[in-house]
């Protein structure tokens, strides 16, 4: 009784799979006509999202973010640097987005993925235009000191690793970068007699003659946090938070970045065969507005969970 | 007496969805992800081959080592991973094609000097890679498990950490297929007496057998979950 049924099920399953591989666009359009996507989501719904803070023990701040199966790990290391002559009272934030060969079948060792410098640039543009971090806050020894050598500022090095690439990389990378900054614990430093900045270890902090220069400021103040949502435009449909498969079939993407107060920070529409009308862009922005609320509550929850511990 | 096994290990398969097979391993402070892609088309420049090819790569995150960006490129790791796995895979099952094994060390516990590289992360990378290969359904003669020991004066320390590696007299790494009792790779560095080396090898082989048991149960768990 059981056996023939099983083989029949298998054959029909094979046909659907073959159709999906041979005619991907038609396969997707058949779904879209029913207002559903192959993974069972409605068109405007983003995938399940989770944030885990403090994933890398050796880093000053870190976050692991999953959106569907897209997985991004960010670790922050802080270093001391000499600020530039143009802005002697400012620190610096450097962002590097890596796509190691483990994350996707497209990436091969020795040949960096095309997407990684693009995402790096988008992220640093987003941070600089959102004014999320006041770089003056990173100044350790202010300009009052007479000698240039005494000027020191903190340098935030943010390394973002894509561990599993399944679409919407920028959204996940931005969320992970923001989450790791919210988790960042600034190490306590002091200035020694030579005017060099040294780390003050927690254990012998009491007995030192050296006065820590940043005793109070252990957390960064994040003024307005940017969140983003990428949508695909295809004919009249708008698909939020695409998977890698959807991104490869339908090529027009719109990424909207909003801050928590709903202000527009940036909007990317890098070409694509679909020309977007104002109404489509507005629809994307509306979807992003909803998503920002959702992401903000996820981030708050992750942060309050850390405080409880 | 040798110190106790530091078998605080975590193994998980299916860490990366985009790959044909993948595994995550956590051993003390070492954290590794390995993805397997293929069998897929070999590079265009490759000659025709009756048997399949194995291509290995090991990379480190910039935050893997205490000083940023220290452990970026390790060609010797790639070569050793390749040699350790090659003997266990039935290459005849995928002629003309290539299986790619890519490892990323998220956090590293051991030191990264070339002579001591055998002792730190490499055993974890190798064991994790063999689990990922099994997850991808690549045919192997047996699971490959890898363990290292360090020798100090009269003590043998299994699975050494960085502080232990620095003061060691010698190190030994064995990669083997425990159910066949066959060794695919054996590395010995430093100073060893004959009795110590025998003792060390036996210790490694026992540890490999235990490790393989843990890895096998991890695979079985996944298989029984997917059946339900």
TrEMBL record, chain A:
<dbReference type="GO" id="GO:0034475">
    <property type="term" value="P:U4 snRNA 3'-end processing"/>
</dbReference>
<dbReference type="GO" id="GO:0071038">
    <property type="term" value="P:TRAMP-dependent tRNA surveillance pathway"/>
</dbReference>
<dbReference type="InterPro" id="IPR033196">
    <property type="entry name" value="Rrp43"/>
</dbReference>
<dbReference type="GO" id="GO:0034476">
    <property type="term" value="P:U5 snRNA 3'-end processing"/>
</dbReference>
<dbReference type="GO" id="GO:0034473">
    <property type="term" value="P:U1 snRNA 3'-end processing"/>
</dbReference>
<keyword id="KW-0963">Cytoplasm</keyword>
<keyword id="KW-0694">RNA-binding</keyword>
<dbReference type="GO" id="GO:0000177">
    <property type="term" value="C:cytoplasmic exosome (RNase complex)"/>
</dbReference>
<protein>
    <recommendedName>
        <fullName>Ribosomal RNA-processing protein 43</fullName>
    </recommendedName>
</protein>
<feature type="domain" description="Exoribonuclease phosphorolytic">
    <location>
        <begin position="225"/>
        <end position="273"/>
    </location>
</feature>
<dbReference type="GO" id="GO:0000467">
    <property type="term" value="P:exonucleolytic trimming to generate mature 3'-end of 5.8S rRNA from tricistronic rRNA transcript (SSU-rRNA, 5.8S rRNA, LSU-rRNA)"/>
</dbReference>
<dbReference type="InterPro" id="IPR027408">
    <property type="entry name" value="PNPase/RNase_PH_dom_sf"/>
</dbReference>
<dbReference type="GO" id="GO:0000176">
    <property type="term" value="C:nuclear exosome (RNase complex)"/>
</dbReference>
<dbReference type="GO" id="GO:0035925">
    <property type="term" value="F:mRNA 3'-UTR AU-rich region binding"/>
</dbReference>
<keyword id="KW-0271">Exosome</keyword>
<dbReference type="InterPro" id="IPR001247">
    <property type="entry name" value="ExoRNase_PH_dom1"/>
</dbReference>
<feature type="domain" description="Exoribonuclease phosphorolytic">
    <location>
        <begin position="46"/>
        <end position="187"/>
    </location>
</feature>
<keyword id="KW-0698">rRNA processing</keyword>
<dbReference type="InterPro" id="IPR015847">
    <property type="entry name" value="ExoRNase_PH_dom2"/>
</dbReference>
<dbReference type="GO" id="GO:0005730">
    <property type="term" value="C:nucleolus"/>
</dbReference>
<dbReference type="Pfam" id="PF03725">
    <property type="entry name" value="RNase_PH_C"/>
</dbReference>
<dbReference type="InterPro" id="IPR050590">
    <property type="entry name" value="Exosome_comp_Rrp42_subfam"/>
</dbReference>
Automatic annotation (TrEMBL), chain B:
<dbReference type="Pfam" id="PF01138">
    <property type="entry name" value="RNase_PH"/>
</dbReference>
<keyword id="KW-0539">Nucleus</keyword>
<feature type="domain" description="Exoribonuclease phosphorolytic">
    <location>
        <begin position="11"/>
        <end position="138"/>
    </location>
</feature>
<dbReference type="GO" id="GO:0034475">
    <property type="term" value="P:U4 snRNA 3'-end processing"/>
</dbReference>
<dbReference type="GO" id="GO:0071051">
    <property type="term" value="P:poly(A)-dependent snoRNA 3'-end processing"/>
</dbReference>
<dbReference type="GO" id="GO:0006364">
    <property type="term" value="P:rRNA processing"/>
</dbReference>
<dbReference type="InterPro" id="IPR036345">
    <property type="entry name" value="ExoRNase_PH_dom2_sf"/>
</dbReference>
<dbReference type="GO" id="GO:0005730">
    <property type="term" value="C:nucleolus"/>
</dbReference>
<keyword id="KW-0963">Cytoplasm</keyword>
<dbReference type="InterPro" id="IPR001247">
    <property type="entry name" value="ExoRNase_PH_dom1"/>
</dbReference>
<dbReference type="GO" id="GO:0003723">
    <property type="term" value="F:RNA binding"/>
</dbReference>
<dbReference type="InterPro" id="IPR015847">
    <property type="entry name" value="ExoRNase_PH_dom2"/>
</dbReference>
<keyword id="KW-0694">RNA-binding</keyword>
<keyword id="KW-0698">rRNA processing</keyword>
<dbReference type="Pfam" id="PF03725">
    <property type="entry name" value="RNase_PH_C"/>
</dbReference>
<dbReference type="GO" id="GO:0000176">
    <property type="term" value="C:nuclear exosome (RNase complex)"/>
</dbReference>
<dbReference type="GO" id="GO:0016075">
    <property type="term" value="P:rRNA catabolic process"/>
</dbReference>
<dbReference type="InterPro" id="IPR050080">
    <property type="entry name" value="RNase_PH"/>
</dbReference>
<dbReference type="InterPro" id="IPR020568">
    <property type="entry name" value="Ribosomal_Su5_D2-typ_SF"/>
</dbReference>
<dbReference type="InterPro" id="IPR027408">
    <property type="entry name" value="PNPase/RNase_PH_dom_sf"/>
</dbReference>
<dbReference type="GO" id="GO:0071028">
    <property type="term" value="P:nuclear mRNA surveillance"/>
</dbReference>
<feature type="domain" description="Exoribonuclease phosphorolytic">
    <location>
        <begin position="142"/>
        <end position="203"/>
    </location>
</feature>
